Amino acid sequence: MKQTLNHTKAIYKRELGSYFNQLTAYIAIFIFLIFVMIMTFAVAQFMRVGDASLQYTFFYWHPLVYVLLVPIVGMRMWSDEHRSNTIELLGTFPISTWSAILGKYLAAATVWLAALALTFPIWITTNYLGDPDNVVIFSGYLGSFLTCLSFLAITSLVSSFSKDQVVTLVISSFLCFLLFLLGFDQVARWIQTMAGEGLSEVFTATGVWDHFRSLNVGNFRLQDFVWFATVISASLVGTNFILTSKRS
Amino acid sequence: MIEVSNLCKTFGTKTAVDNLSFEVKKGEVLGFLGPNGAGKSTTMRMVTGYFPPTSGSISICGIDILTQPEAAKAKIGYLPESAPLYDDMTVRGFLEFAAGIRGLEKRAKDDAVEQAIETCFLNKVAHQAIDTLSKGYRHRTCLAQSLLHDPEVLILDEPTDGLDPNQKHEVRQLIKRLGETKAILFSTHILEEVDAACSRAVIVDQGKIVANGTPQSLRDEYKMDSLHDIFRKVTTADTAA
Ligand SMILES: Nc1ncnc2c1ncn2[C@@H]1O[C@H](COP(=O)(O)OP(=O)(O)OP(=O)(O)O)[C@@H](O)[C@H]1O
Ligand SMILES: [Mg+2]
Predict the structure, then answer these.
(1) Which atom of ligand 1 is nearest to the CA of B204?
(2) Fewer CB within 10 Å of terminal CB in chain A, N or C?
(3) Is the pTM value of this prediction over 0.90?
(4) Do B101 and A93 touch (CB under 8 A)?
(5) Is there a domain that residue B230 lies in?
(6) Would the CB atoms of B48 and A247 count as touching at under 8 Å?
């Protein structure tokens, strides 16, 4: 157990180092911040609307930004190992595949945690300008990060299939976009008129939007945590399965 | 130390390794010879626990690699055929990472990395980024990685591939020296290396062992003086088929 932890830590450190060596992390964080700032201040007019809990002006845009940016950060996770064949080194080191999967996953997650942390000026601004409910804001951050983690786990799964990073990027983005669309307000309404109440509810529960949104407004519903935990663990278990079966 | 029995590997309908059995004892250097596509690398990938075999068993220092992969892999140092490396790291950074994975810490880790750099003549490039290394240096960096934890079993897939004549000589000497205390399995296309470094040689062809013995016993058996002639006699050339 302690050994597994050490292996995970070694992989994690290497991966994190390489994100920052290859500038991927800086670029993704930079684009994320720019995009979120533009959306918040220019498009949604945060200052004028006075949306103190940041629901509509700030967090609202995160899933859409993640659809593209999360796969960009995660696409090399396993694709690069396949391409450069370093997977053969990992596969013959005395470590379990899980150490490698978790180490890589957590390193990419850390990049995103840093990106979210760097949005703190917005949080300070709201506290300076008004009297927001900081629990709701925290819950908003949690929803945002869990959405990011789900997309990252999907990217991990897709990257375990392909040694081509571009293929990984396109397919993961597409899958994340589908997951985003399924429960998205307008789409949900459209499905409701097309296919009726029942099917619409199923779609909404399957997509990420409803779960993200409920945390956004400060609802801690069990079903949302179950959804995020299911998507993340299923994708990581899938990654393990693909990596194992690829070898034989 | 390496015991392989009735090892088979099929890819789809293609048989890459066909009922292979051999043994390498402590203090032995086994040269693994055979034409392209004979199944050398595939065998090594199974012995190192990378590929699961279709059937057969492999034990490393008495540990079954299929049932206790992590314990068995800890005993092995492995140089894969393509000498894969993480391009974004420096030579030293990479070796430190590999040493960390092998469970070495602090002083022991620094010493092991220093020793490996020394042994593989990497001083000049220790702080260079791996993606700027020449082919030979890449190969030596990956070889250094396999020596870090002073493993009891060394498995080297074409360790002298891409090295200059001086380095080829050094690596043969190294294999010979390490072979006194370890069990070494290495593959090569350079038959001179068999005389230079091996205590025994196995020739495989189409996944089967076609010759097995010390260089001298092979010469006696086939009544030929040159290993090249023996190699040509026992293996099927692509051109013939
Ligand atoms: N992952 C794989 N999928 C399908 N076939 C494979 C795979 N790996 C190896 N093979 C096949 O198995 C056979 C043996 O290949 P292997 O790489 O073991 O040969 P080798 O003896 O190392 O040859 P070389 O001297 O060229 O390195 C080849 O015919 C190869 O095409
Ligand atoms: Mg080979």
Answers:
(1) 21
(2) N
(3) yes
(4) yes
(5) yes
(6) no
